[in-house]
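Quick one: structure tokens for this chain, please?
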Amino acid sequence: MDYVSALVPPVVMALFFIGVVRVIVKTQGGAAKAKEDAAVDAALARSEGVHQASVARDA
């Protein structure tokens, strides 16, 4: 019975890892992708605008 208790933790971790990978793959693309891309683009535009404004003040 020692072999069963030795195998349970790796099997549980493997199943958890497979579940995490499946969730990551399923959430890539689709309707959520456009929404996430828009949020990232907006954040980049804000940070770029702040950077340009600070450069303009320094010049």
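The chain has a mean pLDDT of 85.
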